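help with these tokens:
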Amino acid sequence: MGKYDFITAELADLKAQGLYNTIRTIESAVGAWTVVDGKRVLNMCSNNYLGFANDPRLVEAARQAVARYGVGPAAVRSIAGTMTLHVEFERKLAAFKGTEDAISLQSGFCANLSAIPTLMGAGHVLFTDELNHASIIDGCRLTKAERVIYPHRDVGALRRALAEHKAASRKLIVTDGVFSMDGDLAPLREIVAVAEEFDALVMVDDAHGEGVLGSHGRGIADHFGVQGRVDIEMGTLSKAFGVMGGYLAGRREIVEYLRQRARPFLFSSAATPADVAACTTAVEILEKSDEPVRMLWDNGRYLKGRLADLGFDIGHSETPITPVMLGEATTAWEFSRRLFAREVFAQAIVFPTVPKGKARLRVMVSAVHTKEDLDFAVDAFARVGRELAVI
């Protein structure tokens, strides 16, 4: 028996269950229409909420940054990798978020791995929503803190758990702001209130709320009017901002402590000049105008209405994220393949990203989709839905 036989068997099992992920290749800039595997298709599954991934203003900012600073800092931030670009971006981001300070990281995943293990340790207690993102789960696993997993969005259960652990020297509630697979929101106003009652810290992962929720896309804390009451806001720069990276924003002493002790900040090279300059430009655009955010929400409402009218199960999303629920993984993959044949790109989402039996297509609109684009997508969904007897 060969030493790799177990891997071959696992891959065969994934294919048999319909869980094998066929990874497609992007061959152009990411926009409303994108070249995928040699075919021009309507892109309905990227996180390019505001269309910034190919925005000429961000492209030009990146080009100028490379011309001045080169392609990379060639060091970690804490030794020789902090450039004026990083300092300027963090200052502007904190001002945009309405927080005292901000720290930028290499990714949203790194941001969660920076904050949670740095702030929590043995003798402390973490309270985490059962549907939190994998990066939150991994951040919690890296600590020696006790973990309490509370039912999804259940503030009553959270309060009871906090009461049971009120003697803990340090308590942290961590939750996604927007739950990315279903598009529903954390009840952040209520979470903050119960945290204040039990003297717990609150951290919100705003990866899918940044650029989407709140005034000019400032995020979920702004959306619920709890700015200054959330201790740590985490976000990504790869979704609405269309670039790459992550950040943590909050009270000055928390951010400074993360600069001193967060391992991804200390031991992984700094973000590239091109990325940082493009992200700074994204913040500047949103400061000046909320038009991209309004266009995103208009498109989201339009698409949801059309798909619901056709009889699709689109769940209970409160954001432009539109899950088209299909149940079995094999159905979801076949639906995705048939859409692609009709020039619509929407990948299947199956276990382990979502529970077994809850496979879906997560349809993602963008501010740069036109109504004609959305009608084209709806027509393809209608045809495939009838072919597969989904509607």
In short: The mean pLDDT is 96. The two ends are 47 Å apart (CA to CA). The chain has two domains: 16-45+290-387, 56-288.
